[in-house]
Amino acid sequence: IFFILPLQLSPISEKFICVKENVNDNTQVVVINLQNKTSTRKYMKADSVIIHPKDPILALRGTIKNMNTIFLQVFNIETKEKICSLNLNEYMTYWKWINNDTIAIVCEKNIYHWNIDIYNSKKNKEHNNNTLTKVFEKAQIFVDNNSQILHYTTDKDMKWCILCGIFTQDQGKSIDGYMQLYSCEKKLHQTIEGFIGCFGNFIFDNLDMKPLFCFIEKKKNSSISKLHLMDIYTNKSEGVTPHKIVKEINLVNESLNDFPIYISMNMLQGVIYVVTKYSYVYIFDEGTLTLIIKERISEDNIFICCDSKNGDGIYAINKKGKIFYVTLNYAAKIICLLKNSKFHEEYYSSSVAEAILLMIKKNEDIRIIPPLRTQQVLNNFKYFKTVPGQLSPLLLYFSVLLDYDKLNTYESLELVKPVVLQKKREYLEKWIKDDKLSSSEELGDLVKALDLRLALNIYLRCTSHNKIIAIYSVYFVKFLGENNIQFDINGIIDYLLSRKKLQEATSILLDYLKDNKPEHKHLQTKLFEFNLYNNVQVAETLFQMDIFTYYDKHRIAYLCEENGLYQRALENYTNISDIKRVINKSTFLSENRNTQYNLDIEILFEFMKTSKLNMELVIAICVQYYHKIGIKKIINKFEESKNYEGIFYFIKVHFIMFKYIEACVKINNIKELDRICKDKNAKYNPEQIKNYLKECRLSDPRPLIYVCDIHGYIEELAEYLYKNSLLKYIEVYVIKVNPSNANKVISVLLDLDASEEFLLNLLNQIKNISNIKHLIDIAEKRNRLKLLLPWLETRANEGYENIELHNALAKIYIDLNKDPESFLKTNNFYDKKLIGKYCEDLDSHLAYIAYERSNGECDKELINITSKNGLFKLQAKYLVKRQSMELWKMVLDESNKYRKNVIDQVIGSTLIESNNADEITVTVKAFIEQKLSSELIELLEKIVLHNSEFNDNKNLQNLLILTAIKSDSKKVIEYINRLDNFSGLEIAAVAYEYNLREEAFIIYKKFNCFTSAVSVLLDKVLDFDTAIELAQKCNNPDVWFILGKAQLKLNKITDAIDSFIKSNNSEAYKEVIEKCKENNFYEHIIMYLTNLRESTFLKDVLVDSELVYAYAKLKKLSDMTKFISSTNSANLQMIGDRLYKEQEYESAKTLYSSIPNNQKLTVCYLKLKEYALAIEAAKKAKSLKTWKEVNFVCVKYKQLKFAHVAGLQLIMHADHLDEIIKIYEK
């Protein structure tokens, strides 16, 4: 059905299509009824129209002028009754009927459902039953990308909604899409990257029907799409895993921006339909999402689709208005899947097996009628191509079926046939035991030839009792005969025939008469008789078996004649009159039958009268048996019957043709002679005819030419024509008759020393020689190759690229010294290896050129020829240009006696002349791999130090210095000083590793890595002078610090402190303090720590404490007092205790006083014999222990006055009274 649709077409239903078109600047709406093939036209000023899915009801959209309002109206086109209307204040981008009483409206930001009471509107006109409900808000992604709405739908219960839109960000080069899935119950939504989705129901294997959600996902910038089928209705919390399948699919076709516009789940067929913009239809299986078929249904784009309401397919319309109905024939599509799918070999078996499993499943599906496993499907499997290394599709078919199901009748027969032929009895036993075969009489008959027991089992299963009786009858008769038990075979056969048991009787007699004995003549005759009366086909089979010879031939011949078996009648009749009678009835004689009558000339010609077809057979018999019948007799019989056509055909064959040709020559009938000699099917002795025609020396030798050409006497023909000066006919033969044999003719002419002028003229007339190689070989063997030069050059100029032609040209140019170098350098079609070999003994330079142009195929040959002839510069140049590590390895191997010559050339000039970085890299790498250190240094010196293009190459400079470090360390300093663009830090590290400390120092210094440089100097060499000089020059704090540590380590404390001060680094202050203390360098400590505190603002307990200690050790009590009175972090208690232990009581006294620690201060005063101050300090200490100490010391040194004061403090404590008395007593 075709419709021209100029403007718009609304979503279609199975009943109606609605078309909006312009006619004479007026808008018409056409509603087409697909059921009764009628159409209704209405003039309507509407922007858009959609048709109701079921009834002739239209919904129209218009715009109210001067207002941003959309006007919607619904009316019945048959009753012309308005149903309802609606004003919408939001711009609408998409609308459709989603069921019989709801229109979905997609606006810029919101989605609405307009519920329309179609059938009750009349009764409730006063009451508005038509409501507009906001369902949800459009996701922001649709607004941001200005998406075009592609599709909107809901599930059956309107609990879930799906909105689908597309957009482009590169002016249409690619199409992207998003879907918004919305739950009306949960008021939640989810956005999904992809194109299209739908809701539907599927029937599972247990006949349980469930609602599912299906959609096609496609990520941005990805060519792979994914088909999802999932249960969104079941919660995981319910303890049931929701159904979910995901499978990658490829929707990329000729156009990269093709995308799906429609998807539908067909519950009845159990498949998913997907339609794309570019008219591709994909059908997927519900259970596995396996692609069943992909087909393009139209050259024009599809733009709208809908389901068939009876559930057996979909409708689609293209842009030209053509309507397509798409449905699925499972049997055909399964076969199509297997035939046309381009399976990869590694997945072949699994893919075919998957299709067969799908077929098995669908065969049992209650929805698929008729079943899939039919004789037609089985036959198709026989003709599928087999992938090498894989099972044939038919064997794979049976293998899968036997694993999952029982074979039907057709399948059982097809499987068992090869098994019986191969006598695989064990397979049959297993299948029958496992009940994998469907039993039938045909199957039993097939198995019977292999195993009668198994056949009986099959007959029993299919209740074929007659077959069982027949088999047992045969066995019974056989048993009687083998055991010499007398029985009446005639009585048994008569009984079976009376019961119409023809098959059983035939079986018994076949077994009984198998020895073909004369005494069984009567039974043999009876066997043929009852089968000819009842089943002619069985009788024909008995004749074909050809095992019975003693039956009554006349009786059986008569019965055959009566039943139309004329050929069998002729074979068995012996009476001429009977034979003639049958011949008159028959229309065809078989040459392959018994020929006892065939040699009777009378019978033959009698038979020929019945049919012209038989004449050809009679002639064939005459030709075959002419020596028995007689030629003259045969010709006379043809003449008697005035059959001159028979005479003509008879004498045309075999040696008789010679006489005919002889006659043609003698009567000068050249035209007929030409015709006979031209005939490739003519039967004659070609050697005899050829020799005869040569002897005749015909003025027109074309008959001889034809005979020699057909039968391959080319050389002999060419010699004959040349020696008889028939040069014109030589040209005729090689130009017109058979140009492919020109090479053979030319070879003969060369051997006959034909003139060059004639040969060149002949060659120039031959534009295309099919086997030019043979022609060139012939000329070359005869040392006449130069003769072909003009012809070869002409062919080359015409564009022939034949390799043998260009090889010949190369050889000629080389031999003639006709600028061969230019030819070898510019020609791309000659065999480089062959011509190189040809040149080796003539000109080694030319051999080099040929080998060089072979793109590496002649490496060994090139090396050999250049080495042999001392062309080492050329060899070096080729090696550098070739960039082959394998070739370098071969040339630089120690076993190559020419290695030094090549290396000298590479170093001397070749590599310096190169301006290719890759060539340099490969060459250097080759020298490295062969451990040619000294040669590598020399090579790199040439490249890097002698103003070549690569003298500033960092890698090469690195390599030169590293190689020298490892193999020639004396040159390292020179390279360091001369080169500037190398990796200094890395090279210095390697030099240091190889104990080249001076070189490492120079590198570090050159690259301003002063810390590394000074570290190298001070590691083992301990060159302090140079280190100090470097530090002074660079004035780097880190350098001074490293130098200071080294000096400190060797007790150069003064120098170290000076270095540390210059470094302004306090990290080593602890080591400095320890070293100074060990060596009593307290003056230096004061200097260092004072500087440290001033320059780094270091506030450290140890620093301040040691500074106080140094002041004390140097008796600088005023400086110490000044320091401790200022802000500091010194641990005065610790330093005081240390000084006290060292008997530095004066200094300790000052520290204890500043803390204050009156107990320790008292003791210090006592030590200094300042007893009055000690008493004062003891009073402040308020300690019995202190008073006891004062009392003891004063008593000891007779300072009784002060002892008395201390004693008064003690006697107040009775516990100490005894102790005081003892002190005084002592």
TrEMBL record:
Swiss-Prot/TrEMBL GO biological process terms: intracellular protein transport; receptor-mediated endocytosis
GO CC list: clathrin coat of coated pit; clathrin coat of trans-Golgi network vesicle; clathrin complex
Top-level taxonomic group: Eukaryota
SUPFAM superfamilies, per database record: ARM repeat, Clathrin heavy-chain terminal domain
Pfam families: Clathrin, Clathrin_H_link
CHCR repeats: 480-634, 763-904, 911-1056, 1060-1203
Record-level Gene Ontology MF annotations: clathrin light chain binding; structural molecule activity
Gene3D superfamilies per the UniProt record, alphabetical: Clathrin heavy-chain terminal domain, Tetratricopeptide repeat domain
PANTHER family the UniProt entry points to: CLATHRIN HEAVY CHAIN, CLATHRIN HEAVY CHAIN RELATED
Name the UniProt record assigns to this protein: Clathrin heavy chain
Organism: Piliocolobus tephrosceles (Ugandan red Colobus)
